[in-house]
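Per reviewer request, we include the raw input and output of the structure prediction for the construct analysed in the revised manuscript.
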Amino acid sequence: MNKFINLEQTVYVVDDDDALRDSIKELLESVNLKTKLFCSAVDFLSYYQDDYPGCLVLDIRLAKMSGLVLQRVLNEKKSKIPIVIITGHADVTLAVDVMKAGAIDILQKPYQAQVLLDAVNNALLVDDLRRSEIDKKLIYKRSFNLLTERQKEVLVYLLKGMTSKMIAKELSISHRTIETHRKNILAKFSANSMSELITQKLFIDEDS
């Protein structure tokens, strides 16, 4: 699926309690949050793809595959979906385990409606920020792939801080040709200057 398609964020709820699932759906939809329900972790895994934006509200105690196992599977798949854990049997060890595995929050049943809404809204914000970073990486890579082989070669030298005259001497081509390559490189990256392009590159390197 094309990650640049602007899909609507969805709150995925995995719980084997029919009444609880329905109550969560009613609560979330009352504040206009799109919701999709699953009665098992297996059903969720068969449906979900990591380029679906949103977050996961996940019960710990589930038949066949527990919430903790689902968390591990998602981590193995390098999924970035933010997870809010809900459980009726919370303890310190469990809390530590799910938070180490990357959960955004853990709520003990019964929980207040606003507490759940706050946790979900926070998870959706985290999802939005993560996807913004992913989009920046994809845009950079797409821009890089638009470069000719010569432009890629010139870019390597530009990112090292070399001037056009220095690169021209290194590649045994004219200064004017290097300047043309430099202008075209900036245009393909939608950058106004080399300092802006270098900042883009540093962001990609640090977040990789």
